[in-house]
Model the fold of this input.
Amino acid sequence: MPIIKAQDVQYCTLQCPDLDIQEQFLIHFGMHTVEKNEDMLLMKGDGNQPFIEKIIKGDKKFISISFVASSMDDLKKISQTEAFSDIEELSTPGGGFVSKGTDLDGFGVEVVFGIEELKNYSAETIPTNEGRVINRKNQMKRFLKGSSPRILRFAHCGLNAIDPLKSFNWYHEHLGLLASDKLFLGDPKDPATPLQGIFSRLDKGAEPADHHTIFFLSAPMLSEGKPVMNHVSFEMFNIDDVFTGREMLEANKEEFNYFQEWGIGRHYQGSQLFDYWRNPFGQTHEHQTDGDMFDNTFPTRELNVMVDEAGLGKEMAESQWGPSISNTFGNKENG
Ligand SMILES: [Fe+2]
Done:
């Protein structure tokens, strides 16, 4: 039985060597500056979270992911466990409270409660007319040419863990995460087949949750055994924002030293439309939208990722469409 069941994620915290460079990258990526001083930078999207990425000045490193507890009682519960600290008050925008922990790989895990949402925002998108389902009548679809991509929220992260199964179990026990998909490099029924990773989601009961909130990957397979961030991921308002995001980063990549890691494509596991970009320090940030949502009854699937998941193609396929996965995806350059 998990100690608590986290109900959402709030923001991620990274360490970067130069705050000005990261601020400029995140502005091109679609964020807005909330607060900045010599040691710390807070950036927001266009959704209701007061900030979605916190950056601390220092050597590049993944510091933490923050989860939202369902009540102050749950925050107290988690703060009384060995892995987590006493509750502190947050001084960042939106206020609230935090208990800070460390997972098996040394990654930080924050559990927060009481951060106030922003009120003056609109999640409205221009409706689609697809497959003759007419949601948009007498209205044109227009985006201001060259405008910034719109980010709805911080959504998930990928972590290269020394032992993905042990790490997943830790998050299950502490925060209630459920396994959506277990990925095997071969036949899942053969005990000798190596486990490549686990997609895990929040347990929100009957309420649907994102297919994954943490994607645990194998550090021995990807980052020479070093536990590093694989990527941090932000949900866009819609598909147009993924494409306008690519256009913005593409237009600035030479001058500012950005690198498109993988995209645009459509994932199998989670089904999102995705696009991954590295900042000038090599830390991968993802734009994605239109992902699968599962409640807590959806069973865990065990998949052989060496074959096409739909069973229609002849070859291994990393995505439903789009370029093949890069051979640097999730390497130790993410820090
Ligand atoms: Fe992702």
